């Protein structure tokens, strides 16, 4: 235990964000560089090293949180990094992007503010990179077996790194022009600068992983032919089919899926474009969807110079404290103010979009909505609450419905789907096609980055065992495991 009285003497303190007026003028990460270093050891001392550390249950990776908290408290950053990497291939990703179910499950959170687990995690890994402690780990010998990984998001990258280190020859296929999946083009630069992805890719290249960009399996290469070329295949293509909003006016110009809007902004930051073809500059922007992707659209619109930003959510406004039906250690639905929300805009709850209205040229100009409420367990409209709001750019951030079925990958492999439309798999993450495995959102459905990495690591064990007959790789989650919720 770091400090037996740490949780009594030290209050919770989180990373400082840069002033709003400053950060909306650039695309750098919102946090003040180095702001955690003066306080993070004391924050780590708040960890109680519980007899049963429920933070382990909250995190599907099974991160050894009390151990690296103790090392951080004692300023043994190299040891902290080793314990961190023991369960997580990419802690700089999760430390910036994960909503931290581990903190929701922290025992201290029963009656106090939980330990700042994410902040400790990101400090450990940032210091490890700065000290040169993150180095390539190539295998001692090669197995002679080959593996293709389809998709380079967190699940695909985790599976690829684990299998490469196990001695297999791994090639990652990505249909975009750069590696990273939604980490690259779905996450704005102000949440995670892409240099963090780039240096992990270089580490993986040095370990032996091969990368093939701008190759879409199903269109550019027939899936069945790919299967014959490799000893095993891991499908980590994500759940990239956006959920639509089929209301009148949906086909008007200016109504876009979030994953049409956000990648263009990222391509500007990559230097591919001077100006995004879908920009919020000078426009009244409406974001439909109250989740993290919606918040990403809000922050992006602020930086593009929107005239106004309104975010709509069909559900009621959550409370700021746990409800009785969401007890510790479950992950509660709480009112959350992200950095994007701090920057301005309006959030409207309990409303449903009824139609879009355009001008004579087919450009969206107005969004019509109505207030809704739950009655007898059903969502019903409240009469007399209809109104319209200006909307010259609308982004749909209402989730995803499954993996892409249009490119032929599922049908060419002959894959079976489960009842929810995801690719079906057994306890070893194997599909109905011998030698073909699935990890991440393609098999689980839309989920969190920690679940993607955990599934990538677990699927790698299944592949390794299929190729060699046994495996010592870790498998932190089963396909049937679910988040600690109610």
Automatic annotation (TrEMBL):
The keyword 4Fe-4S does not apply. Gene3D superfamilies: Alpha-helical ferredoxin, FAD/NAD(P)-binding domain. This is Glutamate synthase subunit beta. SUPFAM superfamilies: alpha-helical ferredoxin, Nucleotide-binding domain. InterPro entries: 4Fe4S_Fe-S-bd, DPD_II, FAD/NAD-bd_sf, FAD/NAD-binding_dom, Glut_synth_ssu1, Glutamate_Synthase, Helical_ferredxn. Pathway: Amino-acid biosynthesis. It comes from Streptomyces nondiastaticus. Residues 38-69 form the 4Fe-4S ferredoxin-type domain. Keywords: Amino-acid biosynthesis, Glutamate biosynthesis, Oxidoreductase.
